[in-house]
Amino acid sequence: MRNSRRCQVIGFLGSATPDAYAAYVTAFRRGLGETGCVEGRNVAIEYRWAEGQYDRMPALVADLLRRGRYGLPRLEGTGLLAFEREAQGLQARR
């Protein structure tokens, strides 16, 4: 059963390259579609790629958070730590 709720913008953070994440992105889009969210129709996905440069993760997370993109489906290791640190900093500034 499809959910007809209105979808917004989701941030997708990858630690590698788009090519390396192609299968994950395909599966993610498929899962969104199962909930009624279709990229380009009722949801936009903003992708950020660290391309193996893990030191870029905090800046990529901060950029997504500044833009209000809180749906970050691919967080692990360095990305998760960066998200937690940046989210705490964002909350402290409010």
Short description:
Helices cover 43% and strands 13% of the residues.
Describe the protein's architecture and organization:
This protein is of the alpha+beta class and 94 residues long. It has one domain. The chain is 43% helix and 13% strand. The chain has helices at residues 22-34, 57-66, 77-93, and strands spanning 9-14, 44-49. α2 (57-66) crosses α3.
Defining traits:
alpha+beta, two-stranded parallel sheet, flat, 3 helices, single chain
Write the layout of secondary structure elements.
Layout: E1 9-14, H1 22-34, E2 44-49, H2 57-66, H3 77-93
Parallel strand pairs: 1-2
* Rg for CA atoms: 14 Å
Principal-axes shape call: flat
Mean pLDDT: 76
Q: Oligomerization state of this entry?
A: single chain
